[in-house]
Design a protein that fits this description.
With about 425 residues, this protein is α/β, with parallel strands linked by helices. It contains 19 helices and seven strands.
Length: about 425
Amino acid sequence: MEGFPIPRRSLVQLYQNEFTGYNTTKLQKDLLAGITVIAGALPLALAFSVTFGAIAAAGLVTAIIAGSLIGALSGAPYQISGPTVAPSAAPQISAIPQTLILAERFNLLAFDWSTLPEILALALTITALGAVESLLCGAVASNMTGIRLQPNQELMGQGIGNMVISFFGGVPATAAIARTSIGIKAGGQTRMVSIIHAVGLLLSMFLLAPVMAKIPLSALAGVLIITAWRMNEFAAIRFMVGKRFKSDMLAFSITMLATITLDLTQAILIGSLVAGAVFLNRIANLEVDVSEVDAEKPRAKGIEAEGKRKHVRVAFITGPLFFAATGIFNEVFTNLTDTHALILSMRGAPLVDTAGIEAIHRLNENRRQQRRTLMLAGVHTNARAMLERSGLVHDIGEENIFRSSDQAIVAAEKIGCRFCAQADSV
């Protein structure tokens, strides 16, 4: 079954889409949006780095490199990256050195490789959190702009940017919902907003360092509160609560409490796990409807058949056939006895994983041992690729795979039925 896949665009294609027809009007909008982002990103960069136990300059360095490098490599024109963790209660910002290369930076030659096992788990955790937060930022911004994020390109940009940042003494960076939403609401058009904001932060580091060093973190609280408030999608929250989507309200409440009691990165991880569990529970409800063949349906479509359908069954599968749903799949066919030809109509199964493939394989083997036939119909392109890789297309037989269940029914009638043969011989 042919689908309509969303096209993946390379970085070159993204640049062509963004900057074709770029003019002074769009540049002015990007410039204004970039300056607006600076006003919000500067205090956030100063405050966020201290959670890592780093100096405030590390946050600035991170925001500058992330804004320029990751911004240039990102998977959408609106993504603006920087340090994104909750601030600690340090009394004030320490002295800010006027350099992009900090003293406390990663040195590959001086690295103690014996500590690698100790930091590997932490690195993987930060990687997962960074990926989730960047993609979440892209999802939120996509809803605001209507422009789809290219996730593969975004993650590659995040990976390259974070590797480079470590050699300058920065802290981990991700796409930041606060900066990105400010840029969008300020009228930003392209990724030039991210680059302009990075250049502005660089100038601030060299021109305003003495002033910024004396800023108490308590003075930044108002900025953080307003930023957090504006990040809420109140329309979506009202819709969720008004329609009483209980599972979504549960995930929302748990994530909100985790954000308040822990910090944003841990809250995102917890919220993602809860949302994943809710989603898994929903899609695990596989429906398999086994029915006898209705003689009138193919005839109404102009398909002539012999009418020998007594021992032909069609199983309509609705929902993803994956590891959490194979139990239902196996149970349905356990007591299917007087069926010579079984047709699996998979038009409603957009996804099949290895566990689903294994379940189909066992069903096919059982039917082969009983000298019965298994047929497939309406297989999606992705599921077809899995069937071919696993060898199931060869095992079932290309002649037993059809575009529609009607075609499969016609073919099934032509196969000799041993049940009918036994009845005739009595």
